[in-house]
Amino acid sequence: MIRRPPRSTPLYSSAASDVYKRQVAGLSGLLHVKKVRLFAPPRATVPSCPCLHPTRATIAVVDYHVFARKYRPQTFADVAGQEVVARTLTNAIAAGKVHHAWLFTGPRGVGKTSMARILAKALTCENGPTITPCGVCQHCRMIADSSHPDVAEIDAARFTGVDAIRELAENTAFSPTLARLRIYILDEVHMLSNSAWNALLKVLEEPPAHVKFIFATTEVDKVLPTVLSRVQRFDFRSIDLETTVARLKLICEREHQPLDDGVLLRIARAAGGGMRDAQTLLDQLLAVGGGGDDLDLLLGAARGGEVHALLAEVCAGKAKEALERLGAILGQGVAPATLIDQLVERVRGVLLTQACGVDSPVVRRLGGNPTELAVLAKELTPEKVLRLAQTLLAGQQALRHGVDPRLQLELVLV
Question: What pTM, to 2 d.p., does this model score?
Answer without folding.
Answer: 0.75
